[in-house]
Every structure is written in C-alpha cells, then in structure tokens.
Amino acid sequence: METGTREAIRPGNADDIQAALAEADAAGTSLRVTGGGTRRSLTGSAAASARELDLSAISGITNYEPEELVLSLRAGTPLRDVEAALAERGQMLAFDPPDYAALLGAGAARTTIGGIVGSGFAGSRRLSAGNVRDHVLGFDAVSGRGEKFRAGGRVIKNVTGYDLAKLMVGSWGTLAVVTDLSLRVLPRPQYEATLLVEPGDASVALAGIRTALASPLEVSCAACLPDGRSAIRLEGFRASVEERQRQIIRMFESRGSLRAIEEAESAALWRDIRDVAVFASDARVVWRVSLPSQSAATVVAAIAKSAACSALYDWGGSLVWLAMQDDASADLVRGEASKFGGHAWLMRAPATAREQVVTAPPLDAGTTALSRRIKSGFDPQNRLGDGPFAFGKNR
Amino acid sequence: MSLRMPLPDPAVLSARAEIIKGLRRILENDGVIGDDESLVAYESDGLTAYRQLPLAVALPRTTGQVARILRFCKERGVKVVARGAGTSLSGGALPLADGVILGLSRFNRILDIDLENRVVVAQPGVTNLGITEAVKKHGFYYAPDPSSQIACSIGGNVAENSGGVHCLKYGLTTNNVLGVELVTMDGEILRLGGKTLDAPGYDLLGIVNGSEGMLGVITEVTVRILPRPQHARAALLGFPSVESAGQCVADIIGGGIVPAGMEMMDRLATLAAEEFLHVGYPLDVEAVLIVEADGIDAECDHVLSLVNDIATKNGAVFSRLSNSEDERLRFWAGRKSAFPAVGRLSPDYYCMDGTIPRGRLAYVLQRMNEMSERYGLRVANVFHAGDGNLHPLILYNANEPGQLERAEAFGAEILRLCVEVGGVLTGEHGVGVEKRDLMPEMFSEIDLAQQMRVKCAFDPDGLLNPGKVFPHLHRCAELGRVHVHAGRVAHPELPRF
Questions:
Q1: A230-236 and A191-197 as β-strands: parallel, antiparallel, unpaired?
Q2: Chain B partners of A187 at a C-beta cutoff of 8 Å?
Q3: Which residue of A67, A133, A343 is in closest CB contact with B206?
Q4: Is there a contact between B334 and B165 (Cβ–Cβ < 8 Å)?
Q5: How far, rounded to the nearest angstrom, does the alpha carbon of residue B175 sit from its chain's CA centroid?
Q6: Can you give the pTM of this predicted structure?
Q7: A128 in Cβ contact with A221 (< 8 Å)
Q8: In the sheet where B379-384 sits, what is the strand order?
C-alpha cells in the first residue's frame, strides 16, 4: 500500500482496504472514499481526522463481453478509459454518465466509474434509458465493518437475494467501499439527430416536449435550454431516426421555425446539456432539482419571484439545473420543490454557504431513521462518514 | 411437506382465537378469515408442491388498517406473510402455521392516471394487466409483462421484481417503478420515491423491489407508463442446432440491435406448443427463435431485415416475418402457452428459472441433456434469449413414488450448473422457499449476513415473511459480525434449513 500526498491512503486491493479500515478502527477515525475527486466538493466537510481513501489504483477492465452486454471493471477505472473501450465495440453506458469536473471547478481531475456509481447521477439519456442504478448488475465491496462481500451477478436478469447494488449506487461510499463492478452496457445508436425549437416561454416549451414524449416516436432526450429553445433528440438506425424526425417536425411546425442538427453536432450539444456546461464558467450557486416534469416550470417561476435564477431543464423537465446569485436560497428552492414532491441537491456553492446547508436533499423523519439503521448495518462505527448526507440534520 | 420452516411459536398458536378477535376488531368484522375450511384457499401460492394453512387471513382495505394490523401483530410477536394474487412460483407467499396472511386483494383501485407526468399510481392488488388496460385508450401501456399478467398483482410484481418477455429493451419491474408507499412491521408508513425520475438518499425503493415481502407491506405503487409503439413485427426462425440459434442471438446483439423480445424454444418445447395450438412452428428443427421489433414501421422493417440476414448467415432453415398483427400474435401464442403445452406431455412439470450468460447456452443444454438421461426425466426448455433467463421444465409424475424428489434434485443440479457457468439461481421467479437452500451456491455466509442486516434495519424482530430467501434463521442481534472458522459458522445451535 502506498501513501500519497495529503496523507491519502491509496489501496491496491480489497486487503489494503481492510487494513485501512482496521487502522481507522484502532485510531477511532474515519475515511472518505474518493475516485478521481471531481465531486469531492459535494461530500461535505468531513471530520478533521478523516483520511481520504483514494481508489484510483484499483483500476482496469477485468472482463468485457460485448455479446453479453456486460462489462466488469475495477472501481477506480477512469471513465474515459471505459468509454473508449466500449466505443471500440460500438457500445456505451446507456445512463449517459455526466462529467461535472468543469461545473464543480475540479479542473483536470478524471472522473472514475466508481465515482459515477457512488454518486449516482445519470445524464440526459436517463429519460429513456434509465438511471445509473438501473445498469449496475453486481459488485464486490468491503463494508464499513471491514468485511469483504458481494451481491448481484453478471447477468441482466437476476432476483437472487436482495438487490444490494441499488443501495451502493448513490451511497457515496458511506456504506461500503466498492472495489469491483459489473455493469450492463448497450449498443451505441448508429445515428442521431436533434430538433431545435425556437425560443419560447418555458411552460409552453415544456408542454410541447411532453407532447413529444407522449408520442410513440421514442425521443431519447429532451431539454429546454436557458435561452428558451427546446431540444429533442432522436437516436437509432438512420432510416428510423429520419422518419421519426419527419413526424416530430409535423408535430412542432406550428410552433415556429425548427432546426435539425445531426451526428457530431447533435452529440456535442447533448454533452454540454448533460455536463451543464452553460453554468460551468460563472460563479453562481447551482442547484439540481428533481421534479415531476409537469411541475417544473411552476416551481422555477415561484423561485424566480423571490430570487433571480436561470434554468436548464433536462429529462423532459423532470431535472432542473438552477443557477442563482443568492447563496442563501436553500429554504426557497427546497420548499418550492417539496410542494410538488420534488427534491434538490446543492451542487455548487461557496464554502461558507456549504456550512449552512446540507448538500443532499433532506429526508423525512421515518426515512431518515431507516437510513441510519441501514447505514449501521453496513458501517456501525461510521468509519466511512456521512458523505453529502446529514441524516441527523433536517435542513 | 418436506420443506423445513421456522418452528411455530406455541404461544401464538394457543392464542389463535384471541388474535383473530383482535384482527376482527381492527377490520370491524369485515375481512378476517379464521376457519380452516375457508383458509384452504390460502394454503399455497403458484408453487403448489408446498402447502400450509395459515393462522388466519386478514383482508384490509386501507393503509391505516394495514398499519394497525402490523402493529398489533408486532406487539404479540405474530408473524405476517403479505400476499397479492398468490401467483408466486417460488413459494414467496407460502403461509406459516403461526402466521397471519395479509391479503392485499381489496387494494384493487387505480388512484391516479397522470398522463402529463406519464405515471400511474395504483393500489397493490391491481393486476399487472389492469394498469395497461386503464391507460390503453390514451395510447400508453405498462411495459413489464410477466406471463401471469392477467392475474398477478402489481404489489406482488414489486415484491418479486417480476420480469417478462420484453425485459431486454424495457427492463424489469424495478426499472419501471418510481415510488411506493410501504408500511413497516412497526406500523410506520413510508413513502419512497414518487413521480420524479430519481429519489433522494439511499435507494430504499431499489432494495424494496425484489425483497420478497420481507421488508414491508406495499400499499401503493407509482409506475412509469410508456407510449404504445406504433407497430410490432416478429420473425419466426428455425435452426438445425441450438448452437446456430445461440450464435444468431449473439450476432443480433453484437450487431447493435436491441429487440423488443427474443425468445428461444428447444425441440421438445416447440413440439409441445405446436401440438397444442397449431400455430405453424417448424417441427424439423432443434431450436425456434422468435425475434420481435417494435416502433415505427421504418424501425420494425429495418430491424427485421437485419435479423433475417443474420439468421440466414447462421444457417436458419426456417424464416417467416409476420405480415399482420394476427400472424405476429400467432407466433407468440405458442411461446406464451409453452408451459401448459408442456404440461400436456406429462402429469406434472417443475419449472426452473436460472439465468446464464447467453454464450453458454449450448453447453448448458448439452449438460442438461446428460442430466436428463441420468435422472430418467425429460426436460423441455424455453429461454428468454435476450436476457439469458432459462426456464427448463422438468417432466415428472408425482404419483410415481420418488419422481418428485428426482425432479427436485435434477432442478437443483441445473441451478448449480447455472451458477457454475457464471449465472444465477433465479432470473425472475424469486428465491422464496424453493431456492432458499441453494443460496450458499452463490453467496458466502458474509454475503448473506449483509443482506440479512438490511432485513434487520426494516424488521428487527424478523416477523415479516420469515423462512424465505435466507437458508439460516438468524436473530438480528447475532449478526454483529459473522465469524467463519474452517467453513463453520459461529452459531451451530441456530435453525438451519
């Protein structure tokens, strides 16, 4: 086991992780699991005694069978290596893993697959292809107890035992240290096109998007940009995409002029939407708000009455990225979202604001208590910390 | 019953009359069954080899009643088994002699059809098909389609994480459920998820899906609905060998195609289906493959022409593309009735449910044929080729002494084989009691202890559906750390079954 700068522990395998946990146990300290570190700013102010457990040395693809649509790999594998290996065989991670390094000011840090799974945020294709949690088939891990365990498998259809993989996704390394993952992969679409609809009022634009999503034209992604344009993405075999495009155009021609972009240009637009590039270069506070799609425009309008903000609507309106000057808007944003059954993550904020506000969306009392019991089943001594959660606070 | 279940609690058995009285009080004398004659209807689920009369049956109508029943049972240490439509093929709803069956059949209403957000909120007793029926006129449907969809309930689907023939493209139940209302054994009502596309905190909804009624009682389900595809077309293909059919499947996937459905039947299953329904299956082939494409016309035509080319390249000796909806449904009719069709060949059959890596299919079938000769029992195979889920149907006669035991031993050997080649014990039917004792084939003591600790977080007294899924009955306090010495576990005095 080598020890790097900032006193991070850099385990090479599960045995090293067990040793690190045993050491933390003996010292009564805690560890903070990291991959590439691009989302470190979200994991809260860890206890001063917490050391980083940097998984970047546990890296590499261990088994890739394109015909089985399954990829097994180590948690520290950089996302770009994964994507390159998949692209070579015409496949992809369908949940569309986002890269928030620029948004979160993490510079040249490299997102790892473990970080993607641990934080659980899916990209624009979540609308049609499912969340991160829908693509994790199985894993190996060391629990906060220091026990090596595994769950799930390497096949798509599996109900053998509890689906612990779901618990690992989005748990931010607070339950167990995942070392190995098996992921479901899918063929990369042969062709793509995006229709851009003229700027309009967000509520009208989102209603138009919902009409498209209620049609059987298999829209893969749908967004409403901060400048008011709508973007509707179609993917698949070229003949099919072109026919669906014609039908979507008919649906929208009364709403003003339409522009179609294809292939690389379309892909670049969606990379920017997925990674929230539009808010990457300014200093505003950024919220990620999850809502029933029909309520999105209403919630944003209510927030805008009290605080200036701009909004990027993804997932057909169900995911709203809000940028605002005001860094004391937690009650406003979370209050309005919760009126409609939504919730909000504080994605980017000055350190001073972070101290006042819990990063992850707060939970009700019953779910909080249950989550605490789940946590202590995996990590009774809290060796792995609370990550972005604060099961004890309620803001 | 040869199956070992947790020993009934004599105190609970002797307090039966009082417990029934308490349940009647909660349900205001409407919906408590306490006489043995009427309880017979609940003695088993779809896995009829195992039967047990429950202590009583309670049929609540409201979430509040469910909460009160659970609190009442918890206070008295009474076990509870939740039951939807009772179609489980793994004994998930098998009663306990000292346990109350909590039947959700009266939770049969659709609460909200929300087309703008493309979700339906339903009570758990609504049938799977009932959801699709409710939104059909609006052009939507609910995608997961287990074969029992006319009868099985959506609450049961969540508990078992049910599949169907369209999983490869549209996912399992867990991928289509956005929220549930769940009552814990403490009588606490929790809402997990909702109408959003993700939920905050640990993915408790994800762990509830497929937890086989052991974590809580589901009283409401929010599912996502999809626009019904404009068209669907299917190809019916016949191959001279299982290997060539398997290679065709691999090449379809490798060619970047995700069919809406892809089903394979071996020779015996094909013969049985054709004899039963006369749908036009080829009889001189070793394997039949049905591949379906859905979407707009251009999509279906393009995909099917690619599939046809790939099949030809792999030596298909029979190929027909559906030219009408009627013809497409005929292709499926044989596959969908494969179980009853095989049932006509033999007095009884035992349905298995392993999943294997697709590429190992030919090897697995060959090994299975060897076992078939050794056990002296025939086996027919239907295979969800898209996702690797294999349903071997072992033919036997329960009236011949020893045949049931031979069939069960054969089945267990098949499932061990599935694990050996990198697959799993169950793809969609659940562990229940049926595969419970095989769990150590896939999981170590520590793996299982970690799953049980999740159970303990929800139900520390182990009162909800005990005796299912886990081969060992542990008390939660003893799960602190599992010590394994020389292959033996720490508490040899605990019940093992």
A1: antiparallel
A2: 253, 255-258
A3: A133
A4: no
A5: 15
A6: 0.95
A7: yes
A8: B318-321, B231-239, B287-295, B261-266, B379-384, B389-396, B348-351
